[in-house]
TrEMBL record:
Protein name as catalogued: aldehyde dehydrogenase (NAD(+))
Gene3D superfamilies recorded: Aldehyde Dehydrogenase, Chain A, domain 1 (3.40.605.10), Aldehyde Dehydrogenase, Chain A, domain 2 (3.40.309.10)
Lineage: Eukaryota, Fungi, Dikarya, Ascomycota, Pezizomycotina
PANTHER family attached to this UniProt entry: ALDEHYDE DEHYDROGENASE-RELATED (PTHR11699)
Organism: Sordaria brevicollis
Keywords in alphabetical order: Oxidoreductase
Length: 487
């Protein structure tokens, strides 16, 4: 087994990791640094043959890995986390080039380490569900086999680790499929894993948009864990149906936050601002619809604008403490641009922002930048309220009257990932929170996430859960074992 001093890796060339071997492909592609529009180092474009080889290696490794004592699996997962720490600066720099200012990139790397280590504290215990003089009946959890994580571009390290850790802890082997927009960090994580885990236990393949369907249709893959858009999630679910793969879908969100009129603005506004514009609005559980009581609306809006204007935005070369990034890729840039174009057309009123700072053709800076924008009380049926923008543009809406009415408005969406209620009256806040249709509801907070807490959505925001003991069980088959007490 590798010692800690053996865990340094080279960050200049990038390969697939199949059966602990670094593999090149005849064709390569490059992702783009969204803050400079410069190409990143080339990465492999995997073929069906690469997928077949990885799945075969994972299937071959599964029997021994699934029988490895859990404490040995825990030790290796923790060593993997230690290896990320050993290469912290390099991962931070590479993640920054994939789309974040260094400060934000470092935060994701640190959270990835914490998430892996937190996951290893979970344990699957057999549960006695019936016992009498004649028999004992237990429920136990057994690993599925080969699992595949399809990872999005907004948190390419953290969200992948959030699937890898539980999959391995439960005894599965794991193949990591990164987004074509952010493949580089994942490939280096695979190279690090090859120094730690037995062959076939952790593999990483990069490619084009056709790579995901190769995994979803493969007969020897037992589970797909997907994080991404609702539209793509539906396709993943349909593709898995013919082989009855287990599927976990963590999909889009259009999170509502309800602010009551008794809050302390100095405490609440900074938290709301951060969790609305975190990662440039490119977080599935960012606040996307902000309902503020009319009694404090004007004061809240003024303070929110002041706070957002103080935020520092920057890219991979920023050294001035910026935390908020550009839009990550050209596809998403065009989607967000269409919302900005609708500001004038639909006569929305920006309280701040409303400007596209740059484009591929140039502008005040290179990269996919927008001014952070707050839309002042748009109509309820506006695109900016009904659609998830996944960019730095936020509608703030007035509410008055009954709690029931604002709860109805907050629930008036096909999405149901996260939501929050903000009030100094905790009993009132919990009463309201219990009526919101979302997988996670926070009181006086938003985006308070932990590897020990299950995370998933209602309605079109997904099926199943990642993280926590619930997420860990999602990487298992449930088996009922009934045994007589005497022959």
């Amino acid at each position: 087994m590798a010692s800690t001093t053996d865990l340094k890796i080279d960050f200049t060339t990038f390969y697939n990791v199949i059966n602990n071997e670094l593999k090149s492909t005849p064709t390569t592609r490059t992702a783009t640094n969204p803050s400079t529009l410069e190409p990143l180092p080339p990465v492999p474009v995997s073929t069906q043959a690469d997928v077949d080889a990885a799945v075969a290696a994972a299937a071959a490794a599964f029997p021994a890995w699934s029988k490895t004592p859990v404490e040995e699996r825990v030790a290796l997962i923790n060593k993997f986390a230690d290896g990320i720490q050993e290469n912290f600066n390099e991962f931070t720099g590479l993640l920054a080039a994939e789309g974040k200012p260094p400060q934000a990139a470092g935060f994701e790397v640190q959270f990835t380490i914490m998430h892996l280590k937190g996951t290893t504290t979970l344990r699957l215990e057999e549960e006695v569900v019936e016992e009498n003089d004649e028999k004992i009946v237990k429920v136990r959890y057994t690993p599925l086999g080969v699992g595949v994580g399809i990872i999005p571009w907004n948190f390419p390290m953290l969200l992948g680790a959030g699937k890898l850790g539980p999959a391995l802890l439960a005894g599965n082997t794991f193949i990591w499929k990164p987004s074509p927009y952010t493949p580089n960090t994942a490939l280096k994580l695979g190279e690090l894993a090859a120094k730690i885990f037995p062959p076939g236990v952790v593999q990483v393949l990069s490619g084009e948009e056709d790579l995901g369907p190769m995994f979803t249709s493969h007969p020897d893959v037992r589970k797909i864990s997907f994080t991404g858009s609702t539209a793509t999630g539906k396709k993943v679910m349909a593709a898995c149906a013919s082989t009855l793969k287990r599927v976990t879908l963590e999909l889009g969100g259009n999170d509502a936050a309800i602010v009551c009129d008794d809050v302390d603005l100095d405490k609440v506004v900074p938290k709301v601002a951060l969790t609305a514009f975190n990662n440039g609005g490119q977080v599935c559980v960012d606040i996307k619809r902000l309902f503020v009581h009319e009694n404090i609306y004007d004061a809240f809006l003024a303070k929110l604008v002041e706070t957002v204007k103080s935020f520092k935005w920057g890219g991979s070369d920023d050294t001035e403490g910026a935390f908020f990034p550009p839009v990550q890729n050209s596809m998403q840039f065009e989607k967000v641009k269409s919302l900005f174009a609708a500001i004038e057309k639909e006569e929305w009123k920006p309280a701040t922002g409303g400007v596209v700072e740059a484009s591929e053709a140039g502008g005040s800076k290179k990269g996919y930048y927008f001014q952070p924008t707050i839309i002042d009380n748009p109509p309820e049926q506006s695109r900016i309220v009904q659609e998830e923008p996944f960019g730095p543009i936020l509608p703030i809406l007035k509410w008055s009257g009954s709690e029931e009415e604002v709860i109805r408005r907050a629930n008036n969406t096909d999405m149901g990932l996260g939501a929050s209620v903000w009030s100094n009256d905790l009993e009132r806040a919990e009463r309201m929170a219990r009526q919101l249709e979302a997988g996670t509801v926070w009181i006086n907070n938003h985006q308070d996430l932990s590897p020990l807490v299950p995370f998933g959505g209602h309605k079109f925001s997904g099926m199943g859960h990642d993280w926590g003991l619930v997420g860990l069980k999602g990487w298992c088959n449930l088996q009922t074992l009934s045994r007589p007490k005497a022959v």
